[in-house]
Specification:
single chain, disordered N terminus, 3-stranded antiparallel sheet, 13 strands, alpha+beta, two-stranded antiparallel ribbon, 19% strand, 3 helices
């Protein structure tokens, strides 16, 4: 009887210890089946936040999408990205430390901490006045970004990363009212199909192309 009691205790202990491990894996094993039916399971999976969401019951539901929408409105979007360098990164990349099932930080063979990296929409790089850059996307019509007139004109640029490849129907720039400041007399818009994770990547390697109309006078 004592032996049976010990075996039962060991079995229960194993069952309890496996539960959080399976939740971290994103599934649970039931006989010869792999079951994914809990909210904590789905949260371990990579799901685009702008396309689906998980309710408390563990159901995955699609989000309603319009045929035309502002791709910068969804600030919750995060796309995983692989980075293998310690060079400075663009401003739209976040990182989270990796942990094992026991809650200990994971290290590589060089005893360095291992991170997951994510890219999100936002201001990725800016040539002048970086402290004002976030004003472009804050939705406040009374705030704005402008280059520092003391900087050389080659630094009068700002870069917005959409976070993923999207079909673009139109691009719209809004300037502040005249009493708050003068809009640019002329500006050039450039587009690229790719983005570099490195802050100091040369623009020629990113492959920017002129957007038509180019070198346009500011009329709005």
């Amino acid at each position: 009887m004592k032996t049976s009691s010990v075996v039962q205790k060991i079995f229960v202990g194993l069952a309890l210890s496996l539960a959080p491990v399976e939740a971290q894996r994103g599934y649970q094993l039931s006989g010869d089946e792999v079951v994914v039916d809990l909210a904590q399971h789905w949260r371990q999976w990579t799901i685009p936040a702008h396309l689906a969401h998980i309710d408390e019951a563990g159901s995955v539901r699609t989000r309603q999408l319009r045929t035309v929408y502002n791709v910068l409105e969804d600030r919750t979007l995060r796309r995983p990205i692989i980075i293998n360098t310690d060079d400075p990164r663009i401003g739209t990349i976040d990182s989270t430390m990796q942990f094992d099932v026991f809650g200990e930080p994971i290290r590589n063979t060089l005893n360095e901490l291992v991170f997951d990296y994510w890219v999100r929409p936002g201001i990725s790089r800016v040539g002048s006045n970086p402290q004002l850059a976030e004003h472009i996307l804050d939705g406040d019509p009374t705030t704005f970004w402008e280059p520092d007139p003391r900087d050389p004109i080659e630094q009068w640029w700002i870069e917005v990363d959409l976070g993923r490849a999207v079909p673009v129907e139109r691009l719209k720039l809004k300037f502040v009212d005249e009493e708050l400041g003068d809009p640019f007399l002329q500006f050039i818009m450039l587009l690229s199909r790719r983005q570099s994770a490195l802050l100091h990547e040369p623009n020629s390697r990113i492959g920017f192309q002129l957007f038509i109309p180019q070198d346009a006078p500011s009329t709005t």
